[in-house]
Amino acid sequence: MEERKVRYRSILKKIKGLAAVFIIMCILTAFGGCDKENANALREKITEKTEEAAQKHTTEENEKPEQEQTTEETVNPTQEQTTEETVKSEQEKTTEETTEFVQEETTEKDTEAIQITTQNTETPYGNVDRIVAIDAGHQSRGNSEKEPIGPGSDIMKAKVAGGTSGVVTGKPEYELTLEISLKLKQELENRGYTVIMIRETNDVNISNAERAQIANTSGATSFLRIHADGSDNNSVSGATTLCPTPQNPYCSSIYEESRRLSEAVLNNLCESTGCRKRNVSEVDNMSGINWCQIPVSIVEVGFMTNDDEDKLLSTEEYQWKVARGIADGVDEFYSQNDNIQ
C-alpha cells in the first residue's frame, strides 16, 4: 500500500511540472515571447507526455492486481494441497498408531484371559469357593414312597427312612442330627465359610434325592450329610464316614474328592472327640450319595444304640466337639484343594 502511494505522488508531481511548463508557455505566447506555431507544438508535447504518464499509471495498476491475484491463487492451492496432504498423512499415521495400540492391547487382554481360563481348567477343584452344604439327616416323619436310587436307575428306595433313636435318651436321630448340624453351621461360618442348610426345622418332607439336588444347585462345593448310627449290638461304638465307590454307576466322577473329604472329616472328628475311628465306607446303595454331583460325605457321628455314646451325643459340650472336629476336617479338605497344582 505504501509503495502504491509513493508511485501516485511521483506521477502527480510530473503532471504538475508539465502543467507549469504549459502555463508558462501560454503566458509567453500572450506577451509575444513565442509564436503561435511553437506554442501549439509545446502544448501537444505536454499533452502527449501527460497522456503517456496517465496511461503508464493505469497499466501498472491493472497489471499489479492480476499479478498479485495470480500469485495468491498460485500460492493458495499449493498451500491448501500441502496442508491437506500433511493432515491426511498425520491422520493416517495416527490411525496406524491407534490400530497398532488397540491390537497390542487386545492381544495382551486375550492372552491374559486365556491364561486365567487355563489356570481354572487345569485345577477344577483348586482354589474353589468355600461353600458347604449341610444336611441334617432324616426328618420328623419318614416317607416310605419310592424314588430311584440314582439318576436313570430302575432300582427304587424309600425317599426318607425314619432313622434310629437313643437307647438311653430316647432322642430321635432327626433331632440329634439337626442339633449338631446347626452347631456345625455356626462353627464353619465363624471360620469364614458360606453354609447352605438343607433343612433347619424337623417338620419337612424332603427326599434323599431332593436333598442332593438342592446341594448340587446351591453353588456349594462340598456336601456333608450328618447322621447317627445304630446297631443290634449295643457294644458297637465309634464314628464312620461314607462316600461313593470308584465304580459308582451314578457319580464315580466325584469319588476321589469325596474320599478325601470323608477321610479328612473322620480323622479330625475322632481326634476332637476321642471316639473310636471306624473306617471310610465306599457304597453304591445310598441315594443321598448317588444323586450328588459335588464331593459328598455321610458322617455317622456315633452309635445311638450304645449307652455311653448315646448319652455323650446329647450333651452340648460333646456336640461342639463333634462340630469343631468336622470343621477341622473341612479345613483340611479345602487346604488340600488349594494346594493342587
Concise synopsis of the structure shown:
The protein has 2 domains: 119 residues; 208 residues, Aminopeptidase (3-Layer(aba) Sandwich), CATH 3.40.630.
Q: Helices, strands, pairings?
A:
Elements: H1 2-30, H2 36-122, E1 131-136, E2 143-148, E3 156-160, H3 173-190, E4 194-197, H4 208-217, E5 222-229, E6 239-244, H5 255-273, E7 277-283, H6 287-290, E8 296-303, H7 307-313, H8 316-338
Parallel strand pairs: 1-4, 1-5, 5-8, 6-7
Antiparallel strand pairs: 2-3, 6-8
Features of the shown structure:
alpha/beta, single chain, 341 residues, Aminopeptidase, 2 domains
Structural account:
The protein is α/β, with parallel strands linked by helices and 341 residues long. It folds into 2 domains: 2-120; 131-338, Aminopeptidase (3-Layer(aba) Sandwich). The protein is built from 8 helices and 8 strands. It has helices at 2-30, 36-122, 173-190, 208-217, 255-273, 287-290, 307-313, 316-338; strands at 131-136, 143-148, 156-160, 194-197, 222-229, 239-244, 277-283, 296-303. The strands form 2 sheets. The chain has a 6-stranded mixed β-sheet, sandwiched between helices. A two-stranded antiparallel ribbon has the order 2-3. It starts with a helix and ends with a helix. 30% of the residues are buried. Mean pLDDT is 79; it is low at 28-36, 60-83 and 97-125.
What shape does the CA trace take?
Answer: elongated
**The CATH fourth-level homologous superfamily of the largest domain:** Zn-dependent exopeptidases
What is the H/E string? HHEEEHEHEEHEHEHH
Domain module tally: 2
CATH class category label of the largest domain = Alpha Beta
Helix content: 55-70%
| Major sheet strand order | 4-1-5-8-6-7
Our estimate of the beta-strand percent is 5-15%
Q: From the alpha carbons, calculate the radius of gyration and give it in angstroms.
A: 54 Å
Helical segment count: 8
* CATH architect. name of the largest domain: 3-Layer(aba) Sandwich
CATH topology of the largest domain: Aminopeptidase
Largest sheet, in brief, is: 6 strands, mixed
Overall average pLDDT: 79
Provide the low-confidence segments as ranges: 28-36, 60-83, 97-125
Number of DSSP strand runs: 8
Question: Which structural class matches the secondary elements?
Answer: alpha/beta
Distance between the termini: 88 Å
Assembly type of the chains comes to single chain
